[in-house]
Specification:
By secondary structure, the chain is an alpha/beta fold. Among the domains are: 133 residues, no CATH class; 71 residues; 114 residues; 188 residues, Adenoviral Proteinase, Chain. It is built from 23 helices and eleven strands. Strands 1-2-10-9-8-7-6 form a seven-stranded mixed sheet, sandwiched between helices. Strands 3-11 form a two-stranded parallel ribbon. The longest helix has 50 residues. The radius of gyration is 32 Å and the shape is elongated.
Length: 731
Amino acid sequence: MQAARRIATLDEFVSFVNREGITSLGSWIERQRNKNIPQKYNQATRRISTAGVTIVDLRSHWQAQLTAQVSLQSSPPVRVQRELGKIVSLQNQIEDIDDTLEQLQKTIDDRQSSNSAHIAIKDLQCTHSKLSEQAVHLYTSLDLETHYPELAGLPFEFVQTLLLMRDLKIQIRKQAIGTFLEWENLDRAVQGRREPLGTKLHQAARKALSKRQPALHRLIDKFNSFCSRLEEIQPPHCSVPIPLPLPTKLNELKSHTNLFEDIWITPSEGGVPLWLCDENVRQGISSLHVLDRCHEEDLRLSRESENMLRWIDQESLLLASAKERHSNHILHHELEQEAKFLSRVSSRWRRQLQIPQPLLLAIDPRLTTHSQNSAPAAPPAAPPAASPAAPPVSPPAAALPSDPAVNLSMVEPVEDDMNESPWADSENISPDEVEACPSDSEEALAVTDMMETDDDEDTATLKRDHCHVQVSWASLAKSRSTCDTHFVRDLTAHVTRFPVIRDLQPRVVALPGNLPTIVVDPNDLALLTDSTARLNGHILNGVSAAVLSWCMQPFSLHAQSAQRCALLSTYDLHRVRFNAPDKAIWKSLAPTEYWKKSVWIVPVHRQAQEHWALVIVLVHEQKLLLFDSLAQKRPWYTDTKNIMLLVTRMTLLAHRNGHSLPLSMDGEAWTAEPMISIAVQCNSYDCGVWVLVMIAAVLRGMLGSNITEPEIPFLRHTLTNFMLTLPCKSS
């Protein structure tokens, strides 16, 4: 009797759960269609609009990416791969020994040890140098040009770094995937998904992860440093794409698509493809996939809604037919109750399951056709709501180039949380990406404390808030008094006072103070001489440093204005973008004594376009002056975030090294203004010369120049003669 009662109770409970599920099924579909799908759809559409690339172009880029990545690539012999792996391991050990020797040297110097200790240290350093040379010889013995004929003719260091990065990323990917799988194993019981792992196994897994994690961080740091170095030594017109850096924070690495991309080790035909090097195109392709998935989900929900309505109609017809054929009062009562239930469900479903217009048919046509330099189209409105009760979808933010003033938000690389990792150099994250990414609390990882460690003490001096840049596209008003009208005349007069020695010797630029001496190679100087050649970072650094040295001479009328300026290298911004360690960034920036300067001059190189731009940072005014000889707007969306990342790192490093810098990164928003609104360059190769013109104008206390494009060839000739008046490097 009790068993029958339990069975009856279970039947009633199952029937209740079934009815509740049927009743709420329409609400679930309505919620998916009117809340979840439009939210992701609008976010993806906003990103495509901000990227400024049409959907047609994005699909063509995706097809090119698909073709390139699924094609069969020739692989080197297993012996070469194995020896490359050994070289990477050997270099890691050499670097560990180098760090140990440096720490030992400092300890001996502090204790004022005997001469025998210093002699022993020198012997160890000599042995270490020989070991490094043997590692290089081992690499040369691999005869890589035979296995990679496409890389023939490229500099040895470039090829070596590229192939080492290829093997290094494979190792990073293997270790990272293993770490992520162990995280999943540790989190198997989160939210009741599976049974717990067990105390002993859990502790053993945590201990193994804690031992393996520093090695993974070291590999990522090494890979990012290789990215920065490869950017510096890339030959002109080399079409081998530079790999993108990996996040140093493992929680971000887990969802980063770059982790699963192989290193491109062959030159690409027709230049570097945009899907590989242009962040806007990459973001647009990802958003395009989201749009496609939203469209598929919308069609699936539409088919499901049609099937549900068809099922409820069939059930109602069957019940009506059953009531007509049976006269049993008890059965008739049950059928009547079931018919009332189906009637309530039917009326509710018909209100909830209205079929809206397909998502992709509602895309704003401006997203599919607009010119490259026009403002990106506004994102589309949400799909039509299924009922009047459906909540409206909030309108998206306007795209960057379409408004006269746009707020750009970014996450600063300084964290005031003592649980953040010292490797957690920030990435460039847009507000949409922050909203779309799940928070740590949602993931509920049980090993978060293993993924992040304590910050340095000085890191707590700044907060990691959102740093805002208010961009006004009204061109900066320049009067004739703030325009440099005599640069070419003064430079020509200076050149005539010194002999111009035309030989193939490297030139030396000696700078005052603690600034390092710069050596300009003749091959780089030849780029300045050629009237149709693009300048690289080496010649840009050399010429700008020579102009700085000229302006800072005691007899110069512009010495005072030049002393107010901190001239950054073309590679400083790259180091920040590639998450270089603080030690490397400080080593490059410290000689400029930027914390004492009121103007920071930052050259910007856009690798995808092979184009140079310039940013003038007015420190006390918290203002960015943007110069682009092509007067483009869209690329500044990413560049301004990178510049603010650089400013934040510079502020942090100044505070950490005991220098006061009156900057508030969490206070009033920064502003940015373009220095020109009309393009001054019509060709594709003089952008570097225009950057030199603006650098010279700022060093001379001006905000512009009266030089026109027909004068650029003569200016190239004058700058070449100016560099040839410098002393030659002694052999």
